Amino acid sequence: MGNTATAQRAAWEDLPSPLREAVAATGVPRDAVTSYAVAFAGYCARCPAPPAVPNLRPYQARAAAAALHWVRHRTGW
């Protein structure tokens, strides 16, 4: 359990300081933050781009990849 606790602490500490402080001040559970990142990644990966916005899909793919990277970092998956 020591390694898991260390990994969780490190994952929480990777947030920029103002964001980390804001999330900590609200009392939002760590799992809720991770769940949101998973949901955001899934949304960006699966949501089709509207025909009138040709550059949106590449942006969504990059956003999904970044969110998944962060989730992997936070969870060790």
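(ticket continues) Second input and output from the same batch:
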Amino acid sequence: MRVYTPIDPTSVLPEYLYHMLSSMDLNSYTQRAAKGPTLNKRIISQIRIPVPSIEKQQEFIDRMHELEATAIQRLEQAREFEKERYGCGGRIHGPHAKR
């Protein structure tokens, strides 16, 4: 596995990069600013991201799509269950519900 900094755009799928950056805790890279934490070009160029082959990146992306589809399906099932059980119009309640 190779690691590039800065990222070589010819060897990284944009969606792979998106998922990797979305899953990282970037708080240690941020700087304080008036509008909140920021990342500038210099700081972003210091972030290390593992870069497997394009094939492995695509496998990772495909797996993320599968997991997202499963999560959406389960959320829809939970909403339907609550709607049938409690007549609440499909709104999720309980300790994990966003209020």
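Agent notes: The longest strand covers residues 2-4. The beta strands are 2-4, 49-51. Closing as not reproducible unless the customer responds.
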